[in-house]
Amino acid sequence: MLSRVVLSAAAAAPSLKNAALLGPGVLQATRVFHTGQPRLAPVPPLPEHGGKVRLGLIPEEFFQFLYPKTGVTGPYVLGTGLILYFLSKEIYVITPETFSTISVVGLLVYAVKKYGAAVGEFADKLNEEKIAQLEAAKQDTIQQIQDAIDLEKLQQALVQKRHYLFDVQRNNIAMALEVTYRERLHKVYKEVKNRLDYHISVQNMMVRKEQEHMINWVEKHVVQSISAQQEKETIAKCIADLKLLAKKAQAQPVL
Amino acid sequence: MASVVPVKEKKLMDVKLGELPSWILMRDFTPKGIAGAFQRGYYQHYNKYVNVRKGGVAGVSMVPAAHVLPSYCLSCKELKRA
Question: Quick check: pTM over 0.80?
Answer without folding.
Answer: no
